[in-house]
Predict the 3D structure of the following.
Amino acid sequence: MQLHTHTVEGTDPGLFAEVIMPDGGASAVRPVLLLHGFASSAQLNWHDSGWVSTLTAAGRTVITVDLPGHGRSAAPADPQAYRPSRIRADLLQLLMDAGVLPLSPDNPASGVDIIGYSLGSRLAWEFGATQPELVQRMVLGGGPGTADPLTDFDLPAARAALAGTAEILDASTADLIRMARLVPGNDLSALLRMVEAVKEEPFIPAEAVPGMPLLMVSGDRDPFAEGSSELAALSGTAEVLVLPARTHANAVTSRVFKTAAIDFLA
């Protein structure tokens, strides 16, 4: 079913979200919130790669959401709508609208688990740190690492390249733009507004460290996940899984990744 969220702090986030029930009906355990990566969507990141069907077959209720400017969500003209802190507030409202209750040892359906990928992992790290009363466990894939590719993104060069007046020399920026262009329907102007907003709130993992158990997963050929082992050490509660011969683009499709996540969240 589609989840209709209501206004947060006077601004309608226009987020497209869904609640997908497990095979056999409503689950007696807490739901799983899925947070996709930059220039992706819930459909591409989680449905098409088999995550939603795998989780529901394992008896879990799944909550998906398209981030601002992605998938079927609105693409606001105001860059403030893309700030990570703003998105975290919208995610909190989304969970409240979905009926997620604070964690209680007497209620296995209370709270939420989170699986994030890439930018979704960065958002999950901060959300878990700021909402410990809601989040039981998290699986963070494709990062986050010690470097933030969106903070380091060459925004002027990207805008010039999209206008056809220059080339992008920074390899990471060029790779992100290439991936964004591969997804039909992506709103590149909205994605650049997100980059602008993220630059105003750079990822500083030591400022807010999630205290719940973490599983950090990345391909051994993923440059965007470099330094994730340092974040695992910072957490002190994290397990690390490295996927051989996997990149940032294809680690999310790994069956080993899915199996490890389901076992970890059980």
